[in-house]
Design a protein that fits this description.
By secondary structure, the protein is of the alpha+beta class. It is about 15% helix and about 35% strand.
Length: about 200
């Protein structure tokens, strides 16, 4: 839902994020180690997440997540979190993925597949200009949505085509009169003795 409209906006495509691993994550636990997972936020709302790696600062996620996107202006944030059994999960750092680097339109206005699978290694940040400890290794791709026909819309179009075909179809004899038949009936009717 965009702009609080309450309606559903059709996505332009999906971002495919492959999270290979994270290295040298910050330990926020007093006993043991952090329990990291990765989550994807689109304009601040969580859309997907990986499984949690318990007691691990170098998790090998090896997991693919798909995030539907509706506009190039949306903000895609990837955040590594420490899962807590009591209380709120804590951020271990995040990074921003600029959608404009992946979403491109052709001259005809169609969105293009961007599947380079270039492995990226980014240092996590904890705020504007604040570098956090840890690196996330991942790939990012974009796949546009393929237009499909709504089954109800398809049925309406078929019904309209049937109605149009029926309106244009020739009628069986006797159902309508041609101009010559109409004229001959009129002539016969004027010679009818009862009409005189």
């Amino acid at each position: 839902v965009l702009g609080g409209s309450g309606g559903c906006v059709t996505p332009i495509g999906v971002m495919r994020l492959y999270f290979k691993n994270a290295r040298d994550l910050r330990n926020v636990e007093t006993l043991g180690k952090s329990d990291p997972y990765v989550r994807c936020l689109l304009s601040g709302a969580q859309k997907a997440r990986t499984v949690t790696w318990k007691n691990e600062l170098n998790p090998d996620f090896d997991e693919v997540l798909y995030v539907p996107v509706h506009s190039i202006r949306e903000k895609l944030t990837v955040e590594v979190m420490d899962e807590e059994s009591n209380g709120h999960d804590r951020s271990l750092g995040h990074l921003e993925i600029p959608l404009k680097d992946y979403i491109v339109q052709s001259d005809a206005g169609e969105y293009q597949v961007n599947d380079k699978k270039e492995e990226l290694s980014q240092t996590l940040v904890s705020g504007p200009g604040k570098i956090s400890k840890g690196t996330l290794n991942y790939t990012c791709s974009f796949f546009p949505c393929i237009p499909t026909i709504d089954p109800e819309e398809e049925e309406r179009e078929k019904e309209e085509a049937r109605e149009e075909a029926a309106a244009l179809a020739p009628r069986p004899s006797g159902e309508s009169l041609s101009v010559s038949e109409s004229a001959s009936e009129h002539k016969e009717g004027s010679e009818n003795p009862e009409s005189k």
